[in-house]
Specification:
Ubiquitin-like (UB roll); 5 strands; 64 residues; mainly beta; five-stranded mixed beta sheet
């Protein structure tokens, strides 16, 4: 199980990119933190989620 924004999900073994494709976020407007470290977008295809990982996915909203 991987904790994503406080919710336990059975997504271990998937890459961050694979997980992002299953949610309704625009990849250009999010930031992902894994175990306390920001993951560069260029690494989303390479980072495989493991049992016990913790992700925070934050979407940015424009406005003024």
């Amino acid at each position: 199980m991987v904790k994503v924004n406080g919710v336990q999900l059975n997504i271990d073994g998937k890459t961050i990119a694979e997980y992002i494709k299953t949610i309704q976020y625009d990849i250009r407007r999010i930031a992902v933190e894994r175990n306390g470290n920001i993951v560069p977008k260029s690494e989303y295809d390479n980072v495989v989620l493991k049992e016990g990982d913790s992700l925070e996915v934050v979407g940015f909203v424009g406005g003024g």
